[in-house]
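Hey, resending since the last one bounced:
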Amino acid sequence: MNLQNKTAVVTGGAMGIGLATARRLAAEGCIVTLWDLNEKALNEAQNELASHGTVYTHRCDVTDKNLVYQLAEKAEQEMGRVDILVNNAGYVSGGDLLDRPDDEWERTIDVNLTALIYTTRAFLPGMYERKRPRRQHLFRRRDHRSTRTCRLRRYEMGRVGID
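The structure tokens again:
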């Protein structure tokens, strides 16, 4: 796929897999917008990626649907359109099903599932209009046998909704 002059939004894009994905997209010629909670990491990522081309960064809590929709409009204004959405933002913390309090479960589902719905809903209509629905949901996946036990991890439970 030729990515020259394509545009991409990468959630959780300032570190780890998100930053590695943004590096690759930028190196292939994409204009990239990074969303992340960590402003310091966003600034560092923007400085690193600037040598590859245009990079926009915005502090974004992907669980705040109003902010997601507002920044989606901003991304389309800044880049002209959004061709690629990389849903990389995720929340991971240890513990088994019965070991963790409800608020941690709620945070896991809010970030790993509900936020993915917000971001996809924000960008998919424009992608369909241009007949270019390109989105990628990134997450780790354990063997399906783990879903048959009560020892299922919260991260996996939050992501199983998109499997």
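Confidence is low (pLDDT under 50) at residues 136-154.

Sorry for the duplicate.
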